[in-house]
């Protein structure tokens, strides 16, 4: 049995046990919830302990990976700018759409109370006031930022460090990058160990919450799944007018051409696994230059997932909705910027590892409780089909934009390997 199925079964079993206890004897349900809650909290704490070193290492390595890609030629630099624009657009779209959609439904008070009891660990408080928020972006003490899980200042430090490494001697740069890559690899191993115990942690978390809040928990999870699916579908459809405006592709022709790649994406749920189909579509059905598709599509599959910042900010919006928190515009913008940066460094991570390693820092940076993330992890596989289709659609859209700009560029230097002419 695969890990995803084990986690889903644990979610169902824990929810059923909690609901039965609440129906049979509410007092006993509270006692059982108090008994199992520390087990779920221990599991969540074990996941949280890997986030700071993992995010720091991923950002440092990711900056250098993107820098190396950009150094390979004008086409690659243009592609990275297009990736950043699409990712930023997805983030801004989510901070507008997700809270608006959630405002249509009121969270159950008993759910908020139950999750409040589940959040026994302190959440780092986000700065209040625009001046304090602006000053806090750059940490006066990077180690202190890491110690307090101040994720946005920590990521800013990691960006400075990553870009600084591109300016030092290659042999020394390779040593430092090897160190950070080893840190990231080791943290991923630890996360895999912790995720092996995910069925136990998820069972304990959902049992405790359902025993106290009843069916409102399942209703909230359903709202979360529906929210993600709607956001992913709209983002996928939004790529069609983007392709029309910036790639010059008629929307009907573009959609008809990319259907084979979308079908493969939905069946494999892997952008990298869909890469051969994307190359075939771009070369034969869309007619993009081979020198563009051979460079941009592999870059897109390894550096850009348009639905990643959408997911991170949708999760933050859901947490804010559940707990009745109203983040400030500055917190939303800081979370959006962090979501874009983290998404660039986390594309190669396995799904469940990526979920915790990327959603935790964004939620913490916005001062939101993270206890429900263990439950959201259990149901994340359901909207993942729509996410992969959206990512593949965005990859092909970005390739179309770069292809059009490359055709219009009269300057020499876009040779077959993507390197600029001397």
Q: Indicate the mean pLDDT.
A: 84
| Beta-strand percentage range | under 5%
- Contiguous low-pLDDT stretches (5 residues minimum) are 412-422
How many alpha or pi helices?
A: 19
Describe this structure in words.
The chain has 422 residues and is an all-alpha fold. The chain has a single domain, classed as Orthogonal Bundle (Proton glutamate symport protein). The protein is 78% helix and 0% strand. It is built from 19 helices and no strands. It has helices spanning 3-24, 26-48, 51-70, 74-102, 109-118, 130-136, 142-147, 151-165, 170-196, 198-213, 216-247, 251-268, 275-285, 290-303, 307-323, 329-345, 351-365, 373-379, 384-408. Residues 412-422 have low confidence and may be disordered.
In short:
The protein has 422 residues and is mainly α. 78% of the residues lie in helices and 0% in strands. The protein has a single domain, classed as Proton glutamate symport protein, CATH 1.10.3860.
Write the layout of secondary structure elements.
Layout: H1 3-24, H2 26-48, H3 51-70, H4 74-102, H5 109-118, H6 130-136, H7 142-147, H8 151-165, H9 170-196, H10 198-213, H11 216-247, H12 251-268, H13 275-285, H14 290-303, H15 307-323, H16 329-345, H17 351-365, H18 373-379, H19 384-408
Helix pairs in contact: 1-2, 1-10, 2-10, 3-8, 3-9, 3-16, 3-17, 4-11, 4-14, 4-15, 4-16, 4-19, 5-10, 11-12, 11-15, 11-19, 12-13, 12-19, 13-14, 14-19, 15-16, 15-17, 16-17
């Amino acid at each position: 049995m695969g890990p995803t199925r084990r986690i889903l079964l644990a979610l169902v079993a824990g929810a059923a046990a909690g609901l039965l206890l609440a129906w049979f004897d509410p007092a006993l349900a509270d006692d059982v919830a108090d008994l199992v809650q520390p087990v779920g909290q221990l599991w969540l704490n074990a996941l949280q302990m890997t986030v700071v070193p993992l995010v720091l290492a991923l950002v440092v390595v990711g900056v250098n990976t993107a820098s190396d890609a950009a150094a390979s030629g004008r086409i690659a630099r243009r592609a990275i700018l297009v990736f950043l624009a699409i990712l930023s657009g997805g983030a801004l779209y989510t901070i507008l759409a997700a809270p608006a959609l959630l405002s249509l439904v009121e969270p159950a008070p008993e759910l908020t109370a139950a999750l409040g009891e589940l959040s026994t660990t302190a959440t780092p408080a986000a700065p209040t006031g625009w001046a304090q928020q602006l000053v806090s972006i750059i940490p006066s003490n990077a180690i202190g930022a890491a110690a307090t899980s101040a994720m946005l200042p920590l990521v800013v430090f990691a960006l400075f460090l990553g870009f600084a490494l591109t300016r030092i001697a290659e042999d020394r740069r390779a040593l430092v990058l090897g160190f950070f890559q080893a840190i990231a690899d080791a943290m991923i191993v630890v996360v895999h160990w912790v995720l092996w115990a995910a069925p136990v942690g998820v069972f304990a978390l959902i049992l405790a919450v359902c025993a106290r809040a009843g069916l409102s928990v399942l209703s909230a999870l359903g709202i979360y799944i529906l929210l993600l699916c709607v956001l992913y579908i709209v983002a996928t459809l939004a790529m069609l007018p983007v392709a029309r405006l910036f790639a010059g592709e008629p929307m009907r022709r573009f959609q008809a051409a990319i259907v084979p790649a979308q079908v493969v994406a939905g069946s494999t749920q892997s952008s990298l696994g869909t890469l051969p189909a994307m190359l075939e579509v771009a070369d034969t059905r869309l007619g993009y230059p081979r020198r563009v598709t051979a460079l941009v599509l592999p870059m897109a599959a390894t550096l850009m997932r348009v639905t990643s910042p959408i997911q991170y900010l949708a999760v933050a919006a859901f947490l804010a909705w559940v707990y009745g928190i109203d983040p400030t515009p500055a917190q939303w913008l800081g979370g959006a910027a962090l979501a874009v940066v983290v998404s660039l460094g986390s594309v190669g991570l396995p799904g469940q590892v990526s979920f915790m390693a990327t959603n935790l820092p964004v939620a913490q940076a916005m001062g939101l409780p993270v206890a429900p993330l263990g439950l959201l992890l259990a149901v994340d596989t359901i909207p993942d089909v729509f996410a992969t289709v959206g990512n593949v659609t965005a990859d092909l859209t970005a390739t179309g934009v770069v292809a059009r700009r490359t055709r219009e560029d009269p300057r020499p230097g876009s040779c077959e390997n993507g390197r600029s002419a001397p």
